[in-house]
Amino acid sequence: MSPIIEIKGLNVVYAPKSPMERQALGDLNFSVAEGEFRAIIGSQGSGKSTLLQVMAGLIAGKGTVKIAGLDLSIKKNRTQLWRQVGVVFQYPEKQLFEDTVWHDVAYGPQNLGLGQTEVNRRVKRALDRVKLEKEYFQVSPFKLSGGQQRRVAIAGILAMEPKILLLDEPTAGLDPRGRQQLMNMFSTLCSKEKVTIVLVTHDMEEVACRADRVTVLQQGKVAMEGTPQEVFNNKEKLEALGLGVPFASELAASLKGKGVSVKEMTTLHEAEREVGRLLKARGHFSS
User: pTM here?
Assistant: First the structure.
């Protein structure tokens, strides 16, 4: 089965043939399986956002880019792409513009030429997914809190029912509870409805507990790739790339450095379980 995202030999150069010329992506190969939750990490300027914009059809480069079966070298396919791919950039609430929450979320489905019954179904479902109460449906989105506006903006994307969601730091500026609610929703979309998720983030804890696979970029190239455990076990290499590791991986490395035999740990749950095992083995508490 072909991957839902397949990129081969991708090169993107900004300001070519000028004093400001810079290669953002160089001979990059990247693929994502359908229904996968993929995280992309890397230091500033590594090419993460550029890669996301290529997948969204917003930037063209040299190479092969196929998204949801569409070859993006064919210009007309870009219009079809936006029916299949939803993009959530940082602070998506800045794109709100309609007079009510309902009308804002309905804007995309209406432009697909859907009947009103189907539009209403999609809008209600999307607003339910982001957990926005019915009392806000007919309120101006500009009268809502920042977190509520974020949910409205994301509901507008979900109402398009995309096969792929591209997320560029989607929880920036939200409080911890708001971040967790949104990320839980994205994880559910991936696990229950097989929506393919590609997440660009600096939050290693989220990557550790949610991603199926992780791609690490450096200077526009893939530096590492694998499961969260495979990637975060390479603590020294990640640090050389200017990146940190989740707390659990840091704890495992520290304990190993002190001569303590521990299992590999990536998530907080794994750390809790392993620390509990060590304490029990040393007689600090009994079962």
Answer: 0.91
